[in-house]
U2AF homology motif kinase 1 (Salvator merianae), 414 residues
Amino acid sequence: MAAGPPVMEALGRLWQVEAPLGSGSSAAVYQARCLGDPRAPPAAVKEFLPAASGRGSPGEGGGADYGFRKEREALEELRGHRNIVTLYGVFTNCASAKGPSYCLLLELLDVSVSELLVHSSQHGCSMWVTQHCARDILEALAFLHHKGYVHADLKPRNILWSPEEECFKLIDFGLSFKEGNQDVKYIQTDGYRAPEAELQNYLSKAGVQGGTECTSAVDLWSLGIVLLEMFSGMKLKHIVQSQEWRVNNSAIIDHIFASKSVVNSAIPAYHLRDLLKSMLHDDQEKRATATKALCSPFFSIPFAPHIEDLVMLPTPVLRLLNILSDNSLYCEEEFEDIMDDIREECCKYGQIVSLFVPKENPGKGHVFVEYANAVNSKAAQRALTGKRFDGKFVVATFYPLSAYKRGYLYQTLF
């Protein structure tokens, strides 16, 4: 795609390729926007590279055409679930310099759990984010497992945040298969691979035929490792591949939780620990299902987001701090003048749906700006952060639209 024109036709519209988002051995992903319709949201284009066509056999998961068909079929059958990336449509890019290539037009998502882990490597993710991710992805797994699918490549890079729907979504179904019909032998990624998949891969490399096929339980193992990394702030690849882990992973999980300082009561951490142990059972028959995991008491505990969460996870609502003093809050004339200035400045970045300033705690003096979409709020956040307003430096974070609509203001943890 890079060698050809940066414009392609898809679903009766022209799409301008704006930026690369990632690439693998058989596909590349780009951000694109619709030309001629400024109201259309940007999208992601996953192009299956023609040069990769024919590599390997279908049973080995090779071939871009085969990968395209697999992912298309899975996404079409799983379409409509809130926590699974939405497929808008499919098309052929005839402008590719290497020949026609198959493409998926997908909803554009934002920050990945992999990126969140980079930013939280010293202290781990907040319980709010960890619980949010756990619930969202377990909901996705419960749905796709009910449909008979195994994702087979669950890892931090394949869990992305949706700014518009304020939830985490599962992406990349290139290795997925129907349970009982496993057509890909080498599944999952190092560090997130279940013991039974590890054994299957070893036997396949050794040329040993037969053995049992992997089940949906492999996805629960992978998610358990992801959540343990989010809680601990550590990459666990070397730990989960160690002999100590194989002998007694429960003791290692206990050690991680015992050594991690947890804000607020330790009881929620124990609930999370027990949940992860149930997902990381060596015996796949004893491993918790996604539906059972969702019944954990961990999900009944309310958490508040940290300030880092509201900086990292975009939403359509922007929260501006360090703008209004107590005097300006209660002087009606001065307050109206400042609000007019704020509204004028914020309108530069997109359509404003509502603007609200609480005059009592929690949230006293914070300015909440609801935009028509998260694209506008992200532009405003980038432009306004650190900007001087009335002699003060502005701090701009995002804020959950769902909480804002309910009139619920978090006492945010810093």
